[in-house]
Amino acid sequence: MPLSASEFQYVSTLVRREASIVLAPGKEYLVEARLIPVARAVGAESVAALLAELQRRPNVAYQRKIVDALTTNETSWFRDREPFTALTDVVLPQLVKSRASTRKVRLWSAASSSGQEAYSLAITLQEALPPGWSYEIMGSDISTEMVKRAETAEYSQVEVNRGLPAAQLVQYFERAGAHWRVAPSLRRNVSFKLMNLTSPLPSLAPFDVIFLRNVLIYFDVETKRSVLRNAARLLRPDGWLFLGAAETTIGVDDNYERVTAGRTSAYRVRSAASVGAAGRG
């Protein structure tokens, strides 16, 4: 049986409050399917029984499990490939010039799920940066379970088959039983944090590049605007922001300007984008 209207309202209100994700009517079957494993894990007879118990006696740990289950964690290695190509061909050559004094770059993989994007960025930098350069990558996610998985850095054969070239699997991974573990040469440059993008963000050093992809599509306009403003505060004035193919800042936050980056687009704080465009003209 699908969730009742009151059960769905409880879940949608919880997820909206904790993660700012909008669950529109019509998602009842999806929510039911995602919560069946949660109900089993906590010993509830059914999803309905779990929700009834939570409405009688709120349990923060169980509520967190519900939010985690309903956070979309679709990911793969080098997902949508073009942003990584743009990073190699367009962004890094400019950063190598502008960061010559420090020879270091910082990237943020926001909503990094189980870590594939963050480690894909590490592989990209490992291969594209000149000798003597260093890099730091921070991955973040709202899901406690996903952050733990990313830190463990172990992936099944099915997971590494999703977008990871065989040559890079051999070079940057090592066997861990039936799984593959990211090699220390990459892991030492990557860290992960539990972070809700819609809440006030912690004090962090600024980033040269932010990958904030396939996240904004789950938020309403005001939440999108808030997330983009938070990202701008952590982006260096001449930094680069990459969004998902179906996402844009246009009509949401005028502080950004969309710029061409190879065969895809990126976003820059408007003053920096204007200066860069003038320099290329």
From TrEMBL:
<dbReference type="GO" id="GO:0008983">
    <property type="term" value="F:protein-glutamate O-methyltransferase activity"/>
</dbReference>
<dbReference type="InterPro" id="IPR036804">
    <property type="entry name" value="CheR_N_sf"/>
</dbReference>
<dbReference type="GO" id="GO:0032259">
    <property type="term" value="P:methylation"/>
</dbReference>
<dbReference type="InterPro" id="IPR022641">
    <property type="entry name" value="CheR_N"/>
</dbReference>
<keyword id="KW-0808">Transferase</keyword>
<feature type="domain" description="CheR-type methyltransferase">
    <location>
        <begin position="1"/>
        <end position="272"/>
    </location>
</feature>
<dbReference type="InterPro" id="IPR029063">
    <property type="entry name" value="SAM-dependent_MTases_sf"/>
</dbReference>
<dbReference type="InterPro" id="IPR050903">
    <property type="entry name" value="Bact_Chemotaxis_MeTrfase"/>
</dbReference>
<dbReference type="Pfam" id="PF03705">
    <property type="entry name" value="CheR_N"/>
</dbReference>
<dbReference type="InterPro" id="IPR022642">
    <property type="entry name" value="CheR_C"/>
</dbReference>
<dbReference type="Pfam" id="PF01739">
    <property type="entry name" value="CheR"/>
</dbReference>
<dbReference type="InterPro" id="IPR000780">
    <property type="entry name" value="CheR_MeTrfase"/>
</dbReference>
<protein>
    <recommendedName>
        <fullName>protein-glutamate O-methyltransferase</fullName>
        <ecNumber>2.1.1.80</ecNumber>
    </recommendedName>
</protein>
<keyword id="KW-0949">S-adenosyl-L-methionine</keyword>
<keyword id="KW-0489">Methyltransferase</keyword>
